[in-house]
Amino acid sequence: MPETYAEILVVDLLGGIGDLLMLLPAVHGLARRNPGARLRVLTHDPGADLVRGDPAVAQVVTPRHGRPGAEREAVAAALAARRPDLAVSTTRYDGIPELLAAGAGRAVTNLWRDPPPHQPVGERYLEILHAEGLLDAADRSARPRVHLTGAARRAGERAVARLVGEPLAPPVVLVTDAGMAVKRWPGRHWRALAGALARRGHPVLSVGPVDPAAPLGVPLPRAGLPTLAGQFAAVGRRGGVVVGPDTGPVRLAAAAGAPTVALFGPTDARRYGTGGTDLQGLPGCPHRRPTAITEQPCWWEARCPLDAAEPACLAALDVDTVLAAVTAR
Prior knowledge:
- The chain has helices spanning about 15-35, 70-80, 95-105, 120-130, 150-165, 185-200, 225-235, 250-255, 270, 310-315, 320-329, and strands at about 5-10, 40-45, 60, 85-90, 105-110, 170-175, 205, 220, 240-245, 260-265, 275-280.
- It is an alpha/beta fold.
- The strands form 2 sheets. Strands 8-7-6-9-10-11 form a 6-stranded parallel β-sheet, sandwiched between helices.
- Strand 10 (about 260-265), helix 9 and strand 11 (about 275-280) form a beta-alpha-beta unit.
- The protein is globular and about 60 Å long.
């Protein structure tokens, strides 16, 4: 019989919403494999809101402050509050793996080890946990699915219904921003795409900064992440599509069940894809490093070695290609 655990701590302190979403299948798989276990998740806000209320999660813990060392302090506090039988972590900095190894009955603390260059990150997590005997074979094919409460689903439905009703053509949501400049599709491309969709009769909605001089559709109401997930689910129910760069909201849309078209530049779509339609700009870029993206020359300052004006990989994703992918979805 496989070993089971009563007290499980899952730590994801990488900081991004997308990072937590890629780990969700592992969270849900651990809960299924260990029925009745008390599973805690330690992660950052605002992503923590996506697992509060999830039936698989007994407790959500976040760092208490934003000063240096907050994450390590949060891990130490979680271990002191209840010693886990099993700790699983994606987080490798500030001695956190060693802290978990010393404070848990068993710890699996490096889900990034030895990645094949084109294996999706989330699949790698599941493969390692399966190899460690912690997940069943069926769990290896699981995809991120965010739990939608009834309140979030209703709020999202109301917001989308108020903006588009039951349209003749499916709505399209444009996620125009990304957390890093190096991941942003050029503004001129967004404007051309929004115009082309509107001419075809699609209600165009937007998430992210809107230029008053050149609005890109009707902004979705500002909301917390659970309600935003509900809005994306409502768009998907109408046959709509969410399109945007490699960023948390696009991953959230996919996890909420909406079709997505994701635009990849510096990150490799084969490794970081959303599971929808993933378009790669400049697939042959010699500077892209699928398993070491932070070491790419463009990463931190968005200075592309191929184009001084903008990331060449994203500029190369032309509007016609994206429009065809969106309408196909």
